[in-house]
Design brief:
Helix Hairpins, five-stranded antiparallel β-sheet, about 35% helix
């Protein structure tokens, strides 16, 4: 097939996929199955990989998220992104109506829209192609989050019409995805988001677009800010233009000339909002006519032609019957209030997170207190305040325990942190996460031992901690689900090989709080053996430039706990290596710190002796930089096994290509 035919096929596939994206993400009317859609995407990706000269930044395949950035740039808005004035009662809406009519006369028309609870953004299209997007920021200047916005599937990268336009809208997270995200974060003992708005904002401002892409964000466009070459008479017309262009507009529009009708809508939506699949925190009332808007103008902060009606927060009274401690998968001890069940906004609430001991102390929460409870963002139950005037003297103060309620290990709070953590590496509440971390690629790299197999081993009580992996037998593995003779032998071989990993990988694999790949490398290089690390004092760790007080404290506390010492002894008896055998020591590094000053590297494929992060660290220690894509500014492409399309592009550009052995020689 000639290049022209290939290019035509690529463009046809892109057009098909864009159409199906619009049907699914904007209209919610899919016309093909998920399998058929995935087949189209895979076919396009294959053609693009094989023909990089036809790369396009607005291809549907670019939505997975590009490389991470160190910080967001800024974009100055063409016109200010103003906030809205708020109304909380009918009287304030009547006052708004009076002020509008005093300027434009009585012949005024309003449009009422749902106020989506998310993050406001601005999108700019040039000749129908999405070129940049930004947050509101301070209203004058926002953050450039273009790459993250490309991952939002309901934002078209190419419009149905070749307009040059700026539109504004609200990125949000649907309720179902918010609940799923929080469940996942709870399982991994990460802080949960208080509400969908915080989740959307946090997701959209990730420096790594791949994280944003995994968060299932959506958008509604609510305003056409500018349209080159056309004049618009009213808001309803502008919404029609946006919709015809393929943009996902606000799903509810109510048009009226009566402020009393507006008030009635606000009252009705106060109850109806709970049936929506996304969160709204009010309604927005806008003057429809563009000419009237120009007459009304704006203050320095808010337009005079629009106002937001905000729903009142629902609060209820109940009693705190007790406080329980839950131990998360990273050992965090989280206090939870046990409440007399109370109905709030249609759901029964019987528990509320108290977050940490500072939260309890600041609000002076005691067992037996009567308290005001509300749902934060209509989702998460929280204690607003306690009713101290109802105290009888029988209320009991609560303190976080000094030992873990699950395993009995010491519970410590590091300097500068709010969380109290269990220090026990054998704590049952933490084992799944700890073992998965121990076998991960940057740690002991035990191939074939994924989360599903870890779950089986724990369920069948074949292991209790990471060290038990080294005592597994063939006859134990062969009876596991989906485990044949070859798989069992390969797993045992991988476990045996992992015994020879360097000390820095073992140290990282132990899961010591705050000790990442880089810190583990620096510590292993300084102390050389695990026994030396175990015997070191806090001040010994602080001698390392990049090790601070928190990391030093965490390491010392870890090796004080008997559970952890027992685990290490089991690893020692199994024959696991406790020494650092790095290719280069810290001494060797002294003369090479500027070796690759300002040189740009790109990594592709799988390296046998290094993880990506280890290779990246070695390059950066020598003054080099690692970037995510090949360009004319790339100096070296480090290619491992099964390299991708980056190799072909590097060849086309004449970039120096090195393999792992050449990399070692250069080191």
């Amino acid at each position: 097939m000639d290049k022209y035919s290939i290019q035509q096929q690529i463009e046809e596939l892109r057009t098909q996929i864009r159409y199906h994206d619009y049907q699914y993400y904007v209209l919610d009317q899919p016309s093909i199955t998920d399998g058929e859609y995935d087949s189209l995407v895979r076919k396009l990706m294959k053609l693009e990989d094989e023909n990089p000269e036809f790369y396009s930044s607005d291809s549907p395949t670019q939505r997975v998220g590009g490389r991470a950035v160190e910080a967001f740039g800024t974009i100055e808005h063409s016109s200010p992104m103003l906030s809205l004035a708020n109304a909380f009662a009918a009287e304030e809406l009547l006052d708004f109506d009076r002020k509008v009519k005093a300027i434009v006369g009585n012949n005024v028309e309003y449009v009422v829209e749902l106020k989506i609870d998310g993050l406001s953004v601005s999108l700019v299209y040039e000749n129908g192609r999405f070129v940049r997007g930004s947050t509101r920021g301070d209203g004058q200047v926002g953050e450039n989050i273009t790459e993250n916005l490309k991952t939002v599937r309901s934002i078209p990268l190419v419009l149905n019409n070749p307009y040059s336009m700026e539109v504004r809208g609200e990125v949000y997270m649907p309720k179902s995805h918010f609940e799923k995200l929080n469940q996942e974060r709870m399982l991994n003992d990460q802080p949960t988001f208080a509400n969908p708005r915080n989740a959307a904002a946090g997701s959209l401002r990730q420096l790594d677009p791949r994280i944003t892409a995994s968060r299932h964000l959506d958008i509604f466009l609510f305003n056409l800010e500018s349209l080159e070459g056309q004049s618009i008479n009213d808001h309803i017309e502008s919404m029609k233009i946006m919709k015809e262009s393929g943009l996902k507009t606000n799903p509810y529009l109510y048009r009226t000339t009566s402020i009393n009708d507006v008030i009635k809508e606000c009252q009705e939506w106060t109850e109806k909002r709970h049936d929506l699949p996304f969160e709204i925190d009010g309604l927005v009332i806008k003057v429809n006519s563009i000419a009237h808007r120009q007459q009304l103008g704006a203050t320095s902060k808010t337009p005079r032609w629009a106002i937001a009606y905000k729903f009142p927060a629902k609060q209820e009274k109940t009693r705190i019957r007790g406080i329980e401690i839950q131990v998360g998968r990273t050992g965090v001890l989280t206090p939870t209030a046990i409440l007399d069940p109370v109905l709030i906004d249609g759901s029964t609430v019987s528990r509320a997170s108290l977050h940490n001991e500072d939260y309890i102390r600041d609000k002076d929460i005691r067992i037996g207190d009567y308290a005001i409870i509300q749902k934060a963002g209509d989702i998460i139950p929280e204690v607003v305040r306690v009713q101290k005037d109802r105290r009888t003297g029988d209320e009991k103060e609560f303190t976080i325990p000094k030992t873990c309620p699950v395993c009995g290990a010491h519970a410590v709070r590091l300097e500068g942190e709010a969380a109290v953590r269990c220090t026990g590496n054998a704590c049952p509440a933490q084992q799944r996460r700890l073992i998965i971390h121990f076998v991960s690629r940057d740690a002991m790299d035990i191939v074939g031992l994924g989360p599903a197999l870890v779950d089986q081993l724990l369920t069948k009580e074949l292991i209790k901690d990471s060290a038990d992996l080294y005592y597994l037998k063939y006859e134990q593995l062969i009876n596991l689900e989906r485990m044949g003779d070859k798989s069992a032998n390969n797993l045992l071989k991988s476990i045996e090989e992992s015994k020879e990993r360097d000390l820095e990988r073992l140290l990282f694999g132990l899961g010591i709080r705050l000790v990442g790949v880089r810190a583990a490398h620096l510590i292993a290089e300084k102390f050389k053996t695990l026994d030396s690390i175990m015997g070191a004092r806090e001040e010994d760790f602080l001698e390392i430039d990049e090790i601070g007080v928190k990391i030093a404290q965490s390491i010392v506390e870890f090796f004080k706990e008997q559970q952890n010492l027992n685990l290490i002894e089991k690893l020692r008896n199994a024959g696991v290596n406790f020494r650092q055998r790095s290719i280069l020591s810290s001494q060797d590094m002294e003369g090479t710190k500027k070796q690759w000053q300002d040189k740009n590297f790109v990594l592709t494929g799988t390296l046998k002796d290094y993880t990506r992060s280890q290779a990246k660290a070695l390059i950066e220690e020598r003054g080099g930089r690692v970037t995510g894509s090949v360009s004319k500014n790339t100096d070296y492409l480090l290619a491992g096994e099964k390299p991708g399309s980056k190799l072909d592009k590097a060849k086309d550009l004449g970039i120096i290509i090195i393999d792992q052995e050449e990399f070692k020689s250069m080191l």
